Structures are given as structure tokens and as C-alpha cells.
Amino acid sequence: MSDKLAWLTDIHLNFIDDIARQKFYQEIVNTQCDGVLISGDIAEAPSLVDILNEMASYINKPIYFILGNHDYYKGQITEVRDAMTILTEENNKLFWLPASKMQKLDNDTFLIGQDGWADGRLGDYQNSRVVLNDSRMIADLFQEKIIGKYQLLDKMQQLADVDAMSLQNDLEQAISQKAKKIIVLTHVPPFKEACLYQGKISSDDWLPYFSSKVMGDLLSTLAQKNPGIEFLVLCGHTHNGANFQCYNNLTIEVGKAEYYRPEIQKIILV
Questions:
Q1: d(Cα 208, Cα 218) in Å, to the nearest integer?
Q2: pLDDT attached to residue 141
Q3: Average per-residue pLDDT for the chain
């Protein structure tokens, strides 16, 4: 019998009250899933631990997750990550994948995940006039932005590159264990073809903040080197649904989302 995993993304549970959150948790329970996958933007830093504990208590199933940019709002990156590592150690239903590492779902299916960051390498960062709240709400990015636009870009790329390197290590470990299928959770879409707005690829103004080229390059390389492995990448961030078949064995799915209306994206059978 296959396990059923409910995939969520960009649920922003800090925007809704206790009653609405419990209603959403009950919707997840009603799917009779065996576990939950979340590809980021769960809440904001001050409420993140409490909301994750609340969800785990209500659902009472394993919750495998990575963080999105909003999860770091009103916080510092190192402090949030330290809190997620401690949470993963203390709550046996919660698995922040960068800390818990690779999860073996069955004999040949593995789950891995890294938060991931937009890296400014796609689109036209130099001439873009877009300013996301990230550089105002995340302490580390705000500090770089007040120095200058290119210091902010350097920080974005530093964060993206570190997570890509960690993901490479995770992927190579799964490949070495004879994986036939690898499910990857990351927040920012790794290809421009998966960054949609109203059904079209985002403009060059927005792509620097909506995509992670370093992740895309990594996934492309490993998928082409390992044609016998199926790679399924689950993302969020753009709030616009997308399904991009990069290669026969590499699929990128981006969940759609709307503030104040968290939803279940789909049930994945493992």
C-alpha cells in the first residue's frame, strides 16, 4: 500500500486566527494522509515555532518542511535556523529537512530539502526597480540593502549558493543509495519557466527575486547524469501554480497560493 503525503506551500498561517487554522488542520486530517510536506512560507519568525508545534499536535503525523523567505521575517537567519534545529530535535513529528537530512520514504524513494533563496541571476537585476519586503523584514538582508544594491545581491547569492551546495550533498547521498525517485522540497523555483505570473513567465524585473539559477543548474546537471532516477521538485514562493517538465526525469511543480486561504496542493503517493 502506498503512503499518502499532503503537499502544502505558502500557507502563511500567521495571517489567520486560531479557528481558521484548526479548520485547515482538520482538512489535512480528512485526507487521511500519512504525512505532510511543506515547501516554505509557513508563518513569520516570531510565531513559527508555536505554529509548527500547534500543527504537529493537531495533525499528529510527520511534517517534513523547509522554510521560505517569509519564515525569516522579523528575525535573523541564524537564529531562526537554530530554532528549527532545536525544534526538529525536540518534536518527533517535525522534520526541518536541512537539519533532519535525507528521509527514506520507501526502499527506493528519498525525500530531501533545502530552503533555497532567489539569487538574482535570472532576469535583469541591474535595472530592476522591484524591491521586495525581504530586504526590509529580514535583518540580514536589510543590513546589506542599506549599504547598497549590489551588497544585497552578494548576500542573496551567498545564501542561495550555500543552500545549493547543501542540496548537492543531499542529492549525491540519495543517488549513492540507489534511489529511483527523489522528492526535493525547496522554496524558490529553480527555472524561469516555473516562475509564472498570470500564466506567463515573470518579467525580467521580477525574475531576479522569483528564481534560483544556482539550484536549476545543479538539478539539471544531476538529472542528466542520472537518467534512471525520477526527480520531483516541489516549490512555492511565486503564489502562481506551474508545472515544468525540464527533462523526462526532472519535473518542477510550483504551488498556487493566496493569503488568508491556505490550501492543500495535492496528495502525493509514495
A1: 18
A2: 92
A3: 96
